[in-house]
């Protein structure tokens, strides 16, 4: 398992997010599609998707998402959200860190 340089957040107003991160802060837009916008902030890429904010979600790359998910659940992590169409496997570790698993 290795962390990536991507963090995702949810926000109810993506136009306001764009105005702040691209306009005020000057971060280049790296992705803009229906319901999501992403910015290159230097060390990390910040992605916002439409929705209620529940804090930042870090991303960890693994060789096998399902295997890692099962191992992490057995080790005390909670599955928060899973959607193969995105793909998305949001988990919370026993210490409160929320992260997404992605295939390396």
With helices defined by DSSP (H or I, 4 residues minimum), what is the helix count? 2
Oligomer: single chain
Side-by-side strand order of the widest sheet: 2-3-4-1-5-8-7-6
Report, as a whole number of angstroms, the end-to-end distance. 9 Å
CATH-wise, what's the superfamily of the largest domain?
Answer: 2,3-Dihydroxybiphenyl 1,2-Dioxygenase, domain 1
- Summing up helix and strand content along with how strands pair, one would put the structural category as alpha+beta
Whole-number total of structural domains = 2
Outline the low-pLDDT stretches: none
Overall pLDDT score: 96
Helix fraction bin: 10-25%
Strand fraction: over 45%
CATH class of the largest domain: Alpha Beta
Please give the CATH architecture of the largest domain: Roll
The number of strands is 8
- The helix/strand series, from N terminus to C terminus, equals EHEEEEHEEE
Rg is 14 Å
Determine the CATH topology of the largest domain.
2,3-Dihydroxybiphenyl 1,2-Dioxygenase, domain 1
Q: Outline, from the CA principal axes? A: elongated
Largest sheet: 8 strands, mixed
Q: What does this entry look like structurally?
A:
The protein is α+β, with helices and mostly antiparallel strands. It is built from 2 helices and 8 strands; from the N terminus they run βαββββαβββ. It has 2 domains: 1-53, 2,3-Dihydroxybiphenyl 1,2-Dioxygenase, domain 1 (Roll); 56-104, 2,3-Dihydroxybiphenyl 1,2-Dioxygenase, domain 1, CATH 3.10.180. It has helices at residues 14-24, 65-74; strands spanning 2-11, 29-33, 36-40, 45-50, 57-62, 78-83, 88-92, 98-103. It has an 8-stranded mixed beta sheet, covered by helices on one side. The N and C termini lie close together (9 Å).
């Amino acid at each position: 398992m290795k962390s990536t340089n991507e963090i995702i957040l949810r926000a109810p107003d993506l136009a306001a997010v764009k105005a702040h991160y691209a306009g005020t802060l000057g971060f280049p837009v790296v992705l803009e599609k229906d319901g999501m916008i992403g910015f290159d902030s230097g060390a990390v890429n910040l992605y916002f998707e439409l929705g209620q904010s529940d804090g930042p979600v870090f991303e960890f790359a693994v060789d096998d998402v399902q295997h890692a998910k099962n191992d992490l659940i057995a080790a005390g992590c909670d599955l928060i959200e899973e959607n193969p169409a995105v793909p998305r496997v949001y988990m919370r570790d026993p210490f409160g860190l929320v992260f997404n698993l992605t295939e390396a």
